[in-house]
Every structure is written in structure tokens, then in C-alpha cells.
Design goal:
Layout (H helix, E strand, L loop, with lengths): L7 E2 L5 H9 L2 H8 L12 H13 L9 H4 L2 H4 L5 H14 L1 H22 L3 E3 L12 E9 L2 E2 L8 E2 L5 E3 L2 E5 L8 E6 L10 H14 L2 H4 L9 E5 L6 H9 L3 E6 L6 H6 L6 E4 L5 E9 L14 E7 L16 E7 L6 H9 L4 H13 L7 H25 L9 H9 L3 E6 L2 E6 L6 H12 L6
Parallel strand pairs: 3-9, 9-10
Antiparallel strand pairs: 1-15, 2-3, 3-7, 4-6, 5-6, 7-8, 10-14, 11-12, 12-13, 13-14, 15-16
Length: about 450
């Protein structure tokens, strides 16, 4: 073995991410938005540095120093900043505070609007009164959830968490793409490890940030005077203030609701004929599970006007232990929603699909979220924006360029099959050509994806 080969490219497939950024205008948007943070006589454009860090995280990097993999291949990725330059830029953006973060978010929002114009917004059908749903009854679904990021050293805002670990407890929001994929992160809020799960002020801040990331066409009201946006959370989001904020913003919500022992009597008072069969994940009736509406049987004072309380009961699976909040040998779960109409089973199935947010968090932790690399909280807030940028790149690439299984594949699959495609740089007639390995099993899929991107109009 010898280390003397030249012209080889170890991450040939990562050019797909760079081309996606060019099509949606993310490269130009970042350069324009961060122009005010460029130092005099600086060689590297801050927007290009931020984009390089996003590509690095998308292809599997874990810390800022991993950008060296891109720096080693200037023929593919252009000039990439050195580690000290990257560090100084992160310091500069951290010192810039919210205006600097807002500049990155504005570039992401503009790129998202163009990507949605090309591929269509990732909308889902609204539950209708019957099983048949009409054209146009669609909405963008945004899931909120928090996660713990473990810290192995003393960092600013690192504290003991409710899980008795040590680290941070950021809260985020994702546009739900349905099954598979990475989703699109539209909000992140860095919080200390001791931050509460049901802090209403944090949920309000994340919602406002998320709404700013949606394209204008989908943040405005539809023909019926409703915003075509649904916000889903688990029980942590079921607070009076947050629900009222969503009500005032004219968006629909589906919030997990904790049932205490005080709800036993109303639950047992529901007549048997009022319970209708629940659906499984495929929309078929599930044996041993039922749903009913409890709105008229409980006091919902303090919740927004139009709030509905819907309950699911089911027989625990064999061997499961009953909780003290369970009643009559059944397990009960509930959620609040302001959606009018729709079959109860459809509404309950829609709420249960909030569980997909766990996959978004898991893939996020595979894309730089597993570790916050800096000591200062302001620097780690910048890092969260880079993680969101990386997930945006993956989501836009999948929706604009990929088909088949790759369109909904997780980042690990894309990295192994596409981004790690070996290649060679050749130069002839004053042109540089990237030649992909003939024997790589997925080389033709990568070439086809690049061809699709080349056929798309670039953002103005």
C-alpha cells in the first residue's frame, strides 16, 4: 500500500448536494445574507463557508474539523476554508446574535420556497367528514418535539436533565414528509438541560420561527380563511398559552393531552355505542381499540374556543402492566384539536403519526446533532443552524433529484450508496471532468439524479 494516488475523489456523490444548493439558490442566498459579517480583505465568503459546513454534516461529518474532507478536493468543492477560518467565522456569527441567525434562516426560507415551487409543498390530506377526501383539502404538518443532547464536558447551559443525564434540551420543529426521509427542520431553540418539557414560552418561540420558514403561499390563509398548517405535539405542548397562541394564529393543532384519575368518571360515563373502532397505521380498523369524543363531558375552561378532546382506549397487549391512570382494564390516551369535522378515527390516526418526529430527531443526531462541539451557547446555537441546513440539503435533494427507494432513504443509506461513490478527476481541453466508478452499484442512480437537477431552473 502506498499513499501516492492523485486525482481521486472519495466523496464524489456529495456534488449532488452542492448542485442542489445551486438550484434552490441556497449558495447565493447565504452569500448575500451573510455579506455583512465578511471581514475586510477576507479571502473566503462566509456564505460559502457555512454551505461547506452544511454539506460536511450532510455527508456524515461530526465536528467542524471534518470539513477537511471537502478541503482536500478543491476540484469538486472549490476552495474550502481552513479550520482557523471556520472557527473565526463561527465566533463572528455567534457574536452577531439573532441577526446572524436570522440571515441564515432567511436564506433557508427562500431556498425552501423555491424547492417547494419545483417539487410541490409536502402537504397532507385533511381528515374529511367521510372517508373520501376532496381535492384541495391539504395542509402542511409541522411536528414539535424536544430531545436531550448529551454533553461530555462542561459547556455553557449544560445542566442536569430530567432524565438524570447532563447536557442540553433543545426544542425543534419539522415539516412532516410522511413515511421515510429526513423531514425539513423549520425551527430550533437551544435550551439548558434543565429546561422544562412543557414550557409554553419556548413552544411559542419555536412556532413563530417555524411559521417564518414556510413559503408565503402556505403561510397565508386559504379560500376558507384558514391557514393550511397543522401543528402536532405530544403532551408537552398541551398548555393553555400555547394552544391559545395557535388559535390566535388561525392554524389547526393536535396536542397530546394527559388524562389523570379525575377523568375516570367521564370516561366510564361514555356509552358503549359512542366508541367507534380505531384505525391502524394502514387506515384499517384495529381490533381492541376504540375512539370517542369527550368534549361535552369534561370542563375545557381555559382552552381556546372550539377545542375538542378526543380519547382512544385499547386493551393493553399481553404482559403489559396497567397504570393507575388506566380505567376499566383499558389504557386511555387523549389529544386536543380544533379541527372541525372529520371522523374521530381519522383524527386520532393523524395525531398518532406525530411519532414520526422521533425518526426526524434520530436522523438529525446522525447529521451533527449528537454532539454540540463548542463551549459557548451562542456558538452551539450557530451549530444547530448548520444541522438544520444539512437536513434541508438532504430533504431538497431527495425531493428534487432522487426517485425510488432513495427518495425516502435515511441519511446513512444515502451516504453509503450515493455520497461515497468513488470517482476520478480528469482534465482535458481545459475542462474538468468527474468520472464515476463504472463498477459502483449506484453510480447510474447518482448520474441520473445529477441529470434531473441540471434540467431544473435555478432560483432567481
Amino acid at each position: 500500500m502506498s499513499v501516492d494516488a492523485e486525482g481521486l475523489v472519495g466523496l464524489s456523490g456529495a456534488v449532488l448536494l452542492a448542485e442542489t444548493a445551486a438550484v434552490v439558490g441556497l449558495d447565493r442566498g447565504l452569500s448575500a445574507g451573510l455579506a455583512g459579517w465578511r471581514k475586510p480583505r477576507a479571502v473566503h465568503d462566509p456564505g460559502k463557508v457555512v454551505l461547506d459546513l452544511g454539506i460536511m454534516l450532510a455527508v456524515g461529518g461530526d465536528c467542524p474539523a471534518d470539513v477537511a474532507a471537502l478541503r482536500a478536493q478543491p476540484g469538486v468543492f472549490g476552495p474550502v476554508a481552513s479550520d482557523p477560518t471556520v472557527s473565526r467565522l463561527v465566533d463572528t456569527l455567534a457574536a452577531g446574535g439573532q441577526p446572524a441567525l436570522a440571515a441564515v434562516r432567511a436564506a433557508r426560507a427562500k431556498a425552501r420556497a423555491w424547492a417547494w415551487k419545483l417539487a410541490g409543498p409536502p402537504v397532507q390530506r385533511r381528515p374529511a367528514a367521510g372517508r373520501q377526501q376532496q381535492d384541495g383539502e391539504v395542509q402542511v404538518v409541522v411536528d414539535f418535539d424536544a430531545t436531550i443532547v448529551i454533553s461530555h464536558s462542561d459547556k455553557e447551559q449544560s445542566t442536569r436533565t430530567w432524565k438524570k443525564t447532563y447536557g442540553h434540551h433543545p426544542l425543534g420543529g419539522w415539516v412532516d414528509h410522511g413515511e421515510g426521509g429526513t423531514g425539513e427542520p423549520v425551527a430550533w431553540l437551544l435550551r439548558p438541560g434543565r429546561a422544562g418539557s412543557n414550557t409554553a414560552a419556548d413552544h411559542v418561540a419555536v412556532f413563530d420561527q417555524a411559521l417564518g420558514q414556510l413559503s408565503v403561499d402556505w403561510a397565508g390563509c386559504d379560500a376558507h380563511g384558514r391557514r393550511p398548517v397543522l401543528v402536532r405535539t405530544d403532551g408537552a405542548g398541551a398548555t393553555h398559552r400555547f394552544a391559545q397562541h395557535l388559535h390566535d394564529a388561525a392554524v389547526e393543532y393536535s396536542l397530546g393531552f394527559t388524562l389523570g384519575v379525575e377523568y375516570h368518571d367521564p370516561l366510564l360515563a361514555v356509552p358503549a355505542e359512542a366508541w367507534t373502532p380505531a384505525y391502524n397505521a394502514d387506515g384499517e380498523q384495529r381490533a381492541g381499540a376504540w375512539v370517542a369524543e369527550l368534549t361535552g363531558l369534561v370542563d375545557l375552561t381555559g382552552w381556546p374556543a372550539g377545542a375538542r378532546l378526543i380519547v382512544r382506549k385499547e386493551r393493553p397487549h399481553p404482559g403489559a402492566q396497567l397504570r393507575f391512570t388506566d380505567a376499566d382494564g383499558h389504557r386511555f390516551t387523549a389529544f386536543l384539536t380544533n379541527t372541525t369535522g372529520g371522523q374521530l378515527a381519522d383524527l386520532e390516526l393523524r395525531h398518532r403519526r406525530h411519532a414520526r418526529v422521533e425518526d426526524r430527531i434520530r436522523t438529525g443526531k446522525d447529521t451533527g446533532l449528537r454532539n454540540l462541539p463548542y463551549h459557548d451557547a451562542a456558538q452551539n446555537a450557530v451549530w444547530l443552524e448548520l444541522v438544520a441546513l444539512a437536513q434541508d440539503l438532504l430533504a431538497h435533494t431527495q425531493r428534487l433529484a432522487l426517485t425510488g427507494a432513495h427518495r425516502t432513504a435515511e441519511p446513512k443509506t444515502l451516504r453509503y450508496q450515493l455520497f461515497a461513490t468513488p470517482g476520478r478527476l480528469t482534465r482535458t481541453a481545459r475542462r474538468t471532468r468527474l468520472r464515476l466508478s463504472r463498477t459502483w452499484p449506484w453510480a447510474h442512480e447518482l448520474a441520473a439524479a445529477l441529470t434531473r437537477l441540471a434540467a431544473l431552473p435555478a432560483a432567481p
